[in-house]
Design brief:
Structural class: alpha+beta
Strand content: 25-35%
Number of strands: 6
Helix content: 25-40%
Largest sheet: 3 strands, mixed
Radius of gyration: 23 Å
Order of helices and strands: EEHHEEEHEH
Number of helices: 4
């Protein structure tokens, strides 16, 4: 299975004067809802869908509660979750107060099994959503549709 990605030019946030560089962005091709996930789990086990939803909901509530208590939550093969603080620095320890804390993020550290899955992942280039939208507009207007992936034109593919 391949992970779809598109490429876009982005500026360097640390160096506003630097020329933009091309970076890959994973292209999401859907979502697995709680309802769909619970149906899948229920079909693979002897647990009802309602029970799966109840367990997943309680799991999330306990995860959030444990994080607020300052605990790291270990989900085994899935990975670990913990809080990460983003703050402004001060010149001395005495100057630092909680007002220097700007936000808190949830940090996720994948488990070993997930790391090995990512190591063998293949990648498939696709057009960005913006490029797909532009191509649809051009097609509706009867204009020539540009090659969305930048493939050079050939005799076999003159529209590229």
């Amino acid at each position: 299975m391949a992970l779809n990605y598109s490429v876009a030019l982005r500026p360097n946030p640390q160096d506003k004067e630097a020329a933009p560089k091309a970076y890959a962005t994973a292209q999401i091709n859907g979502e697995l809802s709680l309802k769909q996930l619970s149906r899948r789990v229920a079909s693979q086990t002897t647990v009802s869908r309602a029970d799966v939803v109840a367990v997943l909901t309680a799991t999330v509530e306990n995860l959030l509660e444990a994080l607020q208590e300052g605990k790291q939550v270990d989900f085994g093969e899935l990975g670990k979750f913990r809080l990460q603080i983003v703050s402004e620095g001060t010149n001395t320890l005495a100057e630092f107060t909680s007002t220097n804390i700007k936000k808190v993020n949830i940090q996720y550290i994948p488990g070993e099994d997930l790391k090995s899955i990512f190591a063998g992942l293949e990648f498939q280039p696709v057009a960005s959503r913006k490029a797909q939208s532009a191509a649809l507009r051009a097609e509706k207007e009867g204009k020539t549709v540009p090659d969305l992936l930048g493939t050079p034109a050939t005799e076999e593919n003159p529209n590229a």
